[in-house]
Amino acid sequence: MPTKLPARPWVDHLTMGFLIGATAWLSLTLAKGPGELAAIWIGNGIFTGWLLSKPTSAWPAYIVTGLLANSAAQLLAGGSGLSALLISLCDLIEVLTVAGAVRYKVPDVGDPKHWVSLGGVATASTLVACALSGSLASTVTWFIYDSPFWANFIGWYAAHVVGMVIIATTTLAIHRQGFRALAPSGKRLSFAISMLLIAAVGVAVFLADYPLLFMTYPPLLLGAFRHRFLGVAGGVILLATIGSALTSAGHGPLWLLQDIGTAGRIALLQLYIAGGCLMTIPVVLAMAERDRLNTRMRESERRYRLLADYSGDLIVRLKADGERVYVSPSSIDTLGWQPSEMLGQRWDLVHPADRARQRAAMTEVLTLGEPQTLRYRVRHKDGHHIWMEVIMSPIPSEQQIGEMDLILAGRDISHRVAAEEALEASRRELERLSQVDALTGVANRRQLEQRLPLALARLERSGRPVALMYLDIDHFKRINDTYGHAAGDRVIQTFAQRLTSNVRTTDLVVRLGGDEFVILMEDVTRIQAAEAIAAKILEAMREPVEIGVARLTVTTSIGVAFAAGNVVAEDLMVGADDALYAAKEGGRNGYRVIEAGKGSLTVGAT
Question: What is the CA radius of gyration of the chain?
């Protein structure tokens, strides 16, 4: 955005008018003619830079001031009134073309984001504006002074292009930053030495009678390297002023060519100055772009470091081999380690069981270039391990071009992992409880429904027999009615314990409900093996069950269904139920065995 108007506008107007008038008069005087054939035209650059530093609404007053100052300089240099006015109008057309184009296309010339477009607009508008003003001015001088059109045009165009590029930018910079833009704090002595060196070499070259103009380019390049565009601007202005003054005084290598005249010497001087600009300005632009990128990188690094240093998450930068090169201060709160203590190859901080998995994840991220989320344990300084959830992403290496590093952003999830483990344990417990009888602790009907089809499927594949026992406690209702439900529960619990103690560990004891139990037995090689287990259970129940002070004799009836070949679950259960019914009909406290699919009953002991 343009700067605000000064507190005393008339001082600003006088300053601008004096600078435009003085530089115009000096250029015309050194050119020794009213045709304005100067080596470099400074006034229009000052005029343009001044306008761009002001609000557009203030331009009319400054336009009048500039036009009057330029006209006065033309008159003082020996021009006629008509010539002075017309040439000044040509200058004004050039100034307004450049300033108007820049203001229209790039309203905020101070924003670095717009500098690339600003350079393009300023260059294009300068070339067009100088060609337009040069055509008009050359026509005026040809008409009034009968001067050659093309010689005037070439001289005008070269002088005005160089002056607009160098002086307009310098003027705008001074308006926005003050004179510290010419000599920034800390570099003023260096800037002064650079300008003195350029001036000394320039004077020596233009006083010599030998073609040594090229010797001024090294100090000009040095000024460009040290002070960027302002070094170029100051150096070019010095060389143009020294060259014009000493050449006008009859000194310098341009006088070695006697037959080229004043216009030829001015043209050579302009080529010399343009050569200096062509040599230094690309260097300055490249260095300015490098400075801009470095500034952006430093700012980006500063923001990154600020975020990393004050983030609650732990930020770690790793090389591809796992070497930590940066650890954020949050490591103190998260892991108890100082960041410096975690730098380098510290694989010992990663839990041994997680190291291979982390290495594999690092390799995959570097290979695929895609971020991954990983959980692993890191050792706290106190010795225990902390669960971390880390997002691992690839980033360009700071030290090796073309290589990739890793950035890790992690947080402590120990509480979450503990909650998840507790939840999983609860889920497993609920799953277990859903398959276990709450009173006795043995399996329930649901577990039987899951295990029986699997047992029959194995029977079908391997041919190993299966036996299914149905058991009831004899006269259980009488026990409940006589001693109460608590006593009945105690009897059921004791019965379940004795069943579990008298079967194989691979057998499944199930309580269906009430006093009804089932035993599923796999790999029963012979029917006699099932009978042996039934007899063993009957024997175990002979010991009385203690209910308080009472001792109860509890018996059971058992029905066994034996299957040695393919059979469906329903037929096996019906067979066991039929055998149980037969055992009860036979006087209870005994067992019956039926071979599924055959229907034959074997009577057991009572």
Answer: 51
